[in-house]
Amino acid sequence: MSEVKINVEGKVAFISGANRGIGKAIAIELLENGAKKVYAGARDKSSLFDLVEQYGDRVVAIQLDVTDSTSIENAARIATDTELLFNNAGVLHGGGFIHPEAVAGLQTNLDVNVIGLVRLTNAFADTIKKQEVGAIVNVSSVVGLASMPVIGTYSASKALVHSITQSIRGELSETNILVAGVYPGPIDTDMAKEIEMEKDSPQNVARNIIEALKEGVQDIFPDVMSVQVGAGYANSPKAIEQQFGAFVG
Of these residues, 39, 55, 154, 233, which one is catalytic? Predict the structure, then answer.
């Protein structure tokens, strides 16, 4: 638990991957809880227009490709009053490591889920440091704690997000910035549509993330499955590894 607690009312947020799934749900939850402004980033800016139509000038649609440094720099130049950064943009390229497409799959997952996150965080870090209070919220996954072989390269990318979050938290420990990792289980989004497991809704996940930020929670388990995994992981990481290791295809 952090001493820094985030009440989102009146705050300005930037969300990557805000056009669908968890990112869009976070945008709506922020706005419904009184956020002053949300910068909504997506590769296709037109996919954000429904948010703009619903919330007017409280939403600023921004073209954002986290694999393109120029796109990130342009976004940072626009969103100079950002207080809360949500690193949500991600891809899920399936497959494990003993696979002919392992390297290609790993590269795809790393480019977006890891390198894109680091680039975006660095682009906004100085801006957030200038604020009275701020937050950097990184969306990892329960498979960032223990790998599922069927999505092994994706799991590895999310394990890196977990590690990066811990590192950033240490680097910013003397600031008023809450650095939080989010560890959802399968959520009912386009990304997880091929995963045959019971899924929570993006709306519930977003609601629980915002509530956790109000309490200063650093490790956020925002759905029913992730709460169970988080408790199990705290008790026995090896047991979770063995449980997830059974998912091989």
Answer: 154
